[in-house]
């Protein structure tokens, strides 16, 4: 399936979920994440939920990270790129023009410091290729991270068989966590 069709498909599927369903699935995803051997790292990058897009509620995963005494880093859109800031008790958040919660200011973090990135997506395939919202923010961002950064997608759905039109600049996931399973794409 092509990327445009996948975007439409998964936006439509997510639009049918109630807030209670999203919350329950998000908790299941956080519980599934505990099956991965990823919880002894130092810097975790995570997106904050865009509620009107019916995205996964990342608060449950945030609680896990903070419980491990690790550093949480969150993105802020800056032109066509993302900047990254440490999330602390004093970080002030504000919705941007697309209703994405972002830090107002704070301690800037270089992408090379990141050990793991939780990646937002609409769909993905059995090879770990992902489809986002189509603006390329995460592909540009991931290309600036260290080579061995762990890329973990979060999805309500299992993978599609195949995404057509995978581009050279597309960066595949290492894992994707769903409410029922963890999919592994990482090549050893």
From TrEMBL:
Example GO biological process: tetrahydrofolate interconversion
Protein known as: 5-formyltetrahydrofolate cyclo-ligase
Record: residues binding substrate: 50, 55
Keyword DNA-binding included in the entry's annotation: no
Cofactor list: Mg(2+)
Top EC class, one word: ligase
Keywords: ATP-binding, Ligase, Magnesium, Metal-binding, Nucleotide-binding
InterPro entries recorded: FTHF_cligase (IPR002698), FTHF_cligase-like_sf (IPR024185), NagB/RpiA_transferase-like (IPR037171)
């Amino acid at each position: 399936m092509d990327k445009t069709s996948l975007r439409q498909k998964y936006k439509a599927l997510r639009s049918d979920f109630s807030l209670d369903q999203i919350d329950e699935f998000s908790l299941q995803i956080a519980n599934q994440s505990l099956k991965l051997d990823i919880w002894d790292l130092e810097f975790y990058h995570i997106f904050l939920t865009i509620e009107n897009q019916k995205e996964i509620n990342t608060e449950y995963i945030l609680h896990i990270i903070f419980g491990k005494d690790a550093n949480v880093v969150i993105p802020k859109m800056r032109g066509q790129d993302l900047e990254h800031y440490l999330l602390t008790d004093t970080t002030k958040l504000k919705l941007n023009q697309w209703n994405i919660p972002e830090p107002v200011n704070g301690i800037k973090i270089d992408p090379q410091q990141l050990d793991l990135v939780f990646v937002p997506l609409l769909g993905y395939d059995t090879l770990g290729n992902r489809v986002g919202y189509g603006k390329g923010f995460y592909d540009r961002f991931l290309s600036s991270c260290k080579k061995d950064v762990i890329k973990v997608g979060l999805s309500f759905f299992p993978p599609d068989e195949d995404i057509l039109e995978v581009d050279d600049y597309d960066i595949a996931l290492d894992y994707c966590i769903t409410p029922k399973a963890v999919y592994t794409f990482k090549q050893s």
